[in-house]
Amino acid sequence: MNNLHPVVAKVTQRVVENSREGRRRYLDLVEEAAGRDPNRHSMSCSNLAHAFAGAEEDQEAIMKARGPNIGIVTAYNDMLSAHQPYGRYPEQMKLFAREFGATAQVAGGTPAMCDGVTQGQDGMELSLFSRDAIALSTAVALSHAMYDSIALLGICDKIVPGLMIGALRFGHLPAIFVPSGPMPSGISNKDKQKTRQLYAEGKATREELLRSEMGSYHSPGTCTFYGTANSNQMMMEMMGLHVPGAAFVTPGTGLRQKLTRAATHRLTEITKDGNDFRPLAQCVDEKAIVNAAIGLLATGGSTNHAIHIPAMARAAGIAFDWNDLAELSSVVPLLARVYPNGSGDVNHFHAAGGMGYVIGELLDAGLAHRDIKTIWGEGLGDYAKEPVMDDDTLVWREIGESGDPEMLSTVAQPFQSDGGMRLVEGNLGRACFKTSAVERSRWTIEAPARVFETQRAVAEAFNKGELNRDVVVVVRFQGPRSNGMPELHALTPPLAVLQEQGYRVALVTDGRMSGASGKVPAAIHVTPEALGGGPLSLLQDGDMIKLCAETGTLSTDADLASRTPAHDAQTEMGLGRELFAMFRHHADGAEQGGSAMLASAGL
Questions:
Q1: What is the dihedral of CA 567, 573, 577, 582, to 10 degrees?
Q2: What pLDDT digit, counting tens, does each position of 403-434 carry?
Q3: Is Metal-binding included in the keywords of this UniProt record (predicted)?
Q4: In terms of domains, do 488 and 545 share one?
Q5: Residues 544-578, buried b or exposed e (16+ Cβ, 10 A)?
Q6: Helix locations, 300-445, DSSP H
Q7: In terms of domains, do 148 and 99 share one?
Q8: Considering only 36-45, 176-185, 370-379, 387-396, which range has the smallest mean pLDDT?
Q9: Number of C-alpha atoms within 13 angstroms, CB side, residue 23?
Q10: Are residues 446 and 323 in the same domain?
Q11: Which residues form the domain of 177?
Q12: Smallest Cα–Cα separation from 499: which of 566, 445, 562, 558?
């Protein structure tokens, strides 16, 4: 690509250099797996008979290897609205596969928890490590070696990264992510946010709050705010792992079904036995990982991906860290304002031009790699269009100008000159600061600390009026090794109330915020975490803390060296948390991806 921005080229080259040995080992693993021919063609008759005993009308085709066999790994459950539509996908995909002389089998299922259900609850402490469990479940599903390509059915927060990590260990096979799309828009995000804050102030009843939430989260499909789930879908487009434009088409529509059909057909065409082989290991390379980060920055996506991108990269033998993310952020402009960064949701974003528009802008400005191996077409340029129905035929058309300049802008006139994700560091460690939703006047906060070890303690102090002042709220012992690094989104309404009352407020934590991280300045994912003697374990109430996104500062003037670390007194019992003790014990830092599985595997 001749016009690639020099900083994008520089960061990519650094990632290539830092990944040289790890990438070589990974590709050697993939080559060895492909060379062993670990599939049904080499199985004994007894093995094979077990594998298609339940295949009913596809038995003969699988037995005689008449065509490719697609392994479906599904994260279906009907508690999670985004995944509810997947219940009928396998049945449909088997029909679509037969149209091309192929077969499809459900290789296995993975867990799929909803972070929206567990926000502020003890179950959230399982959330991050559910990504490892999903990766392991994916590996178990694919270990049967029956498949020529992989359909990955998952959308939400830890599920797409987990599916990716697991599938990458079978990188000799082609894989396509198959989304199901966002639910239709409900009440406005502004109204929802207003009710939440009124409830936090005691001015709305629980019934009023529940009615408001039900007006927003109301039907099958992904939640419509631009959180981690929808950021996942953005990244799959930026990496070329979707059928182009599949991310944000609503469930239950003819276009949605046509896109699923196209994905199934494509999985029959890009196998080893065809003439267009596109194994996952070749698609997910250094350039694809950089593209994922660029998309995150250009759209103001979820802060959770500061953890997930390094973890996914590691699974492909690629080293990517927060220095890379921060340097890309310095040149990638913010092109989209989607709630919580703006007023409209992902349906409005898609209608205004969506991912096709963003990709076109980035490519024209040399801010993304065009020459990646995608599962479709000749590179990322094929993703700068939108899918539509022409009578009963799926086609792609040019997008043109933004349909809503308040939501989608140009590289020449962006909403913000950088990507809105800053690295802050100092004697309190390294952390991420999402600036895209925070007013610039609040990018610098210097105030006394109030130190907590649970979200509940923060809520109690807020209700007592103890936080009615300029304050940096520190919530520690929330890292991967302490309690699984839960999201702390329940802190957003009370801190927003304090901010609207005129106080200078910030959050510093070794935990996570959700993809809905909003207008309160926050240094999150602080590493090293408090457990084990990290700097946050040395803080005391009243210590002056400076958090500045302008200068990249996270520091205190307190004499930390003279202090003894506080100890984590929390319990990890109940709701199955005790079963995840191994994950907590072996987890590595947030910047490395916060994974016990990858750390234990030496990746």
A1: 60
A2: 999 999 999 999 999 988 999 999 999 999 99
A3: yes
A4: yes
A5: ebbbbbeeebbbbebebeeeeebebeeebeeeebe
A6: 305-315, 322-329, 346-351, 354-364
A7: yes
A8: 36-45
A9: 17
A10: no
A11: 6-114+127-184+219-397
A12: 445
- Residue 114 labeled ligand binder: no
> Which are the contacts of 112, defined by CB distance < 8 A and separation ≥ 6?
75, 76, 77, 80, 83, 134, 154, 156, 159
**Gap between the Cα atoms of 106 and 108, Å rounded:** 6
Q: Which of 315, 318, 375, 346 is nearest to 160 (CA)?
A: 315
pLDDT more than 70, % of the chain: 98
- The rounded distance, in Å, linking the Cα atoms of 464 and 444 is 27
Same domain, 560 and 488: yes
Q: At what angle do helices 305-315 and 228-238 cross, to 10 degrees?
A: 40
Residue 223 annotated as binding? Answer: yes
The residues, ordered by sequence, that sit 6+ positions from 562 with a Cβ below 8 Å of its Cβ are none
Domain count for the chain: 2
> Rounded to an integer, what distance in angstroms lies between the CA atom of residue 361 and that of residue 384?
8
**Element spanning 107, H or E:** strand 103-109
Same domain, yes or no, for 342 and 384?
Answer: yes
Same structural domain for residues 391 and 502? no
Last residue of a domain, one of 382, 397, 412: 397
Give the single-character DSSP code of 141: H
pLDDT of residue 1: 43
Is position 199 within any domain? no
Q: Is residue 224 a contact partner of residue 244, using CB atoms and an 8 Å limit? A: no
In a domain, 256, yes or no: yes
Structure tokens at 74: 């599904």
Instruction: Using CB atoms within 10 Å of the CB of residue 2, give its burial: 0 to 12 exposed, 13 to 18 middle, 19+ buried.
Output: exposed
- pTM of the predicted model, to two decimals? 0.94
499's tokens: 């901010």
